[in-house]
Amino acid sequence: MATSTEIEPHQERAERRGQGDREPVRDELPMERLDRNSIELMGQLRVAGTGVQVLLAFLLVVPFNARWSRVTAFDRYVYFVTLLCIAAAAVLLIAPSVHHRMLFRRGEKAYLVSLGNRLAIIAMALVTIGLTGILLLISHVLFGGLTAAIVAAVALGGVVTLWFGLPLRRDHRH
Question: What is the chain's pLDDT, residue by residue, as a tens digit (174 residues)?
Fold first, then answer.
């Protein structure tokens, strides 16, 4: 004979079927969903974090280049804003791992997944600004103002469209 603990998860799963969730119905309990979301988030943060670390390393080396003394004040400001954006993005992308280490045994998984998601989105907005800044800086040093403006505008438009516009458009349709 089945015990109540064997029946309850199946009943809970059956009750959730057909709910107005935007996510497809899966045969998983709330904690299983949080576990899956947490694993997916950490994997995505690893990918983004590696890219941001490479960008930050590049930016940290730039001022030590022999040609750096010949850049304009505009280039220095673009560089500094770009450096700050990429550094802030790195901090935001690392934060969920630190929070997880500090709170993982305290039943805070829902909070960790929610906060990690928000921090990752903010970090990607900063990376968008940082990528645009890097391309603006390099284009300005190599080719001057008009080319730099075009490259920066195309880069900003492309990244915003691919990273934010398409998912928001899809979300709006549903």
Answer: 444 444 454 445 444 444 445 666 778 888 888 878 888 888 888 888 888 988 898 888 888 887 888 899 999 999 999 999 999 999 999 988 888 888 878 878 888 889 999 999 999 999 999 999 999 999 999 999 999 999 999 999 999 999 999 999 987 877
The sign of the dihedral angle between the CA atoms of 94, 98, 103, 104 is positive
Backbone conformation region of residue 71, classed left if phi is above 0, alpha if psi is from -120 to 50, else beta = beta
pTM of the model: 0.76
